[in-house]
Amino acid sequence: MDVKNAFLNGDLVEEVYMQPPPRLEHPPNKVCQLKRALYGLKQAPRAWFAKFAPPSVNLVLLLDLMILRIHDLKQFLNHKFEMKDLGVLSYFLGLEIASTHFEPNVRFTSMDGSPLASLTCYRQLVGSLIYLTTTRPYIAYAVHVVSQFMATPYFTHYAVVLCIIRYIKGTIFHGLHFSTHSSLELCAYSDADWAGDSDYRKSTTGYCLFLGDSLISWRSKKQTVPSCFSTEAEYRALGDTTSELLNLCWLLKDMDVPQPPVTNLYCDNQSVMQIAHNDVFHKRTKHIEVDCHFIRHHVAQGTIHLVFIGSANQLVDFFTKAHFLGRFRTLISKLKLVSSQPP
């Protein structure tokens, strides 16, 4: 919230006079008396401060529930002054406010900054964050990044860990939503971020699986070997997703949860889908021959059905890269991550 012309709302106690403005018709030898504090007056900041600071001191008991009355405070200020609502805080006194836990388009290496003196603290914090990813998928990618520097962490990596913890503190009531009216049909999304690792140019595998509308399994993991082409990285990710999909299908079968004969697997790479349906090998696919045989077998058997999905609707982007606030909130909404803060 911003008060328009804030200093004009201050009450002047002293008598202050000024020369009439140019071109203002006035009697000779007359001056103007100020009724309001103007910008430039020495008394203006003091008068505006006195508007809010009574001479007496009142004892106040601050409770957590008072944050719920912030709307009443905004209405009160609008009634007293002409206010402008600036929306969500993004920049203040040289500080840029971030609403996400990980900055997009930033690549970290194993030699960023200066070495961290205490390795135990870093490892304990990252270990706790890894545990939290079992219920907080929105930090999976960020934790995947900081966990790569467990051997020799630097201050830059430690700062990212602290940023993640601050974000968790602000979203402590956020969690997964499981609908009682959702279907029990399984589906999966697969994607990869090609050569995203700055040190060894390895790709990142990401997948998530839904039971109806409910997110039940996800992963963000660096691939073991570099990929020469983006298609190769996508196909390796598709192989990992297929393995997880089959495991869940067998688990649901043991739990007597019926599944359709064919399960949809969504992918945003047309080349990968062509390779999965083509029995011809060439030099660009010989490095992933095992994955090719594995996926083609299940496609031919009718166990999985590859479905193309546009990048704008690809939910696994959440687990392969960082995003700006708009895209970040869109993915959170689609993954059914909601706030369960009590009233």
TrEMBL record:
Q: Where is the Reverse transcriptase Ty1/copia-type domain?
A: 1-52
Q: What InterPro entries is this protein classified in?
A: DNA/RNA_pol_sf, RVT_2
- Renumbered to this chain, the signal peptide range is none
What is one Pfam family matched by this protein? RVT_2
PANTHER family named in the record: GAG-POL-RELATED RETROTRANSPOSON, OS10G0432200 PROTEIN
What is this protein's name? Reverse transcriptase Ty1/copia-type domain-containing protein
Which organism encodes this protein? Rubroshorea leprosula
